[in-house]
Amino acid sequence: QPPPDIKDIEQPKRGFGKGGFVVLTAIKNM
């Protein structure tokens, strides 16, 4: 499961808009 999380963290770098959503998902996973 960790690999997907890293991929999600790398995605925000490309799209700042999606970054916020990914951050919320990361916090939810924690």
Mind telling me the C-alpha Rg? Answer: 9 Å
Mean pLDDT: 63
Structural class: mainly alpha
The portion of residues forming beta strands comes to under 5%
Please describe the biggest sheet, giving its number of strands, its sense, and whether it closes into a barrel: none
Shape: flat
According to DSSP, the number of beta strands is 0
Straight-line N-to-C gap: 12 Å
Low-confidence stretches: none
Portion of residues in helices? over 70%
How many H/I helices?
2
Order of helices and strands: HH
Describe this structure as you would to a colleague:
By secondary structure, the protein is mainly alpha-helical. Helix content is 90%, strand content 0%. It has two helices and no strands. Helix 1 (2-14) runs antiparallel to helix 2.
